[in-house]
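TICKET: design request
STATUS: open
ATTACHED STRUCTURE:
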């Protein structure tokens, strides 16, 4: 019986801390983070660029966002990618949906603690879509799993299928910054969303090319404001 229960729980929850990878005692699987990490969750706070969430010494917008102004209205990220590198790899490539639910819960806590004003303003959130074939391969879309969990933990409505990806592209991670912009151009389509304030969710913000293209599609379909929220941002 105990083994059976362990099996069921293992499908629902990761048996390790999603932040540091340390194995958890079974009674802590549901929490998904170890006591050490829970006592000092490394959320990105302090002075941050209002578009990408990267750290700022002074001012309100970072150099690269000033140089190439993002299409979206503003943006935040919950964690530094370096801290989550292994955790995100386990989630995306070892097919552990349970990790995503824990990450989403942490993103919800980040919003509730530091960006409560965002929650009131948003009409609904939606996920950066994967191409059908890619989603089938992986078994899930990581941004969709994050959205479901953020929605459950904040009450922000989640509208699936607002965005779709019209063609399969080369993975952005394999390309240079310039190639990323070309690779992703006009790849997304959006359903009508007149006058809506939308929170667009993804797992990693790197150059912002994908989030920019998704935002462009949403604005074309009538969105009033597109704001972005990522699990992590690269340096
Ligand atoms: Zn930990
Ligand atoms: Zn920036």
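STATUS: resolved
RESOLUTION: sequence designed for all positions
ATTACHED SEQUENCE:
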């Amino acid at each position: 019986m105990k083994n059976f229960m362990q099996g069921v729980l293992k499908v629902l929850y990761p048996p390790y801390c999603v932040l540091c990878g340390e194995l958890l005692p079974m009674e802590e699987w549901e929490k998904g983070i170890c006591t050490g990490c829970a006592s000092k969750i490394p959320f990105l706070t302090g002075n941050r660029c209002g578009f990408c969430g990267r750290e700022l010494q002074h001012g309100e917008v970072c150099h690269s966002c000033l140089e190439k102004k993002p299409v979206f209205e503003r943006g935040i990220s919950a964690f530094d990618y370096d801290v989550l590198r292994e955790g995100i790899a386990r989630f995306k490539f070892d097919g552990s949906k349970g990790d995503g639910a824990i990450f989403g819960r942490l993103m919800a806590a980040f919003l509730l603690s530091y960006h409560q004003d965002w929650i009131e303003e948003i009409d609904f959130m939606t996920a950066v879509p994967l191409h059908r074939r890619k989603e089938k391969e992986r078994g899930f879309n990581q941004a969709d799993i994050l959205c479901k969990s953020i929605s459950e933990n904040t009450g922000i409505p989640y509208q699936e299928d607002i965005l779709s990806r019209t063609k399969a592209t080369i993975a952005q991670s394999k390309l240079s910054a310039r190639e990323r912009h070309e690779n992703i151009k006009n790849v997304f389509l959006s359903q009508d969303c007149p006058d809506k304030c939308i929170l667009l969710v993804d797992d990693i913000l790197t150059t912002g090319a994908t989030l920019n293209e998704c935002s462009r599609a949403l604005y074309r379909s009538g969105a009033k404001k597109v704001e972005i929220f990522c699990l992590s941002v690269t340096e």
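CLOSING REMARK: The mean pLDDT is 90. The pocket of zinc ion (ligand 2) is lined by residues 49, 51-52, 54, 61-62, 64-65 (CB under 6 Å).
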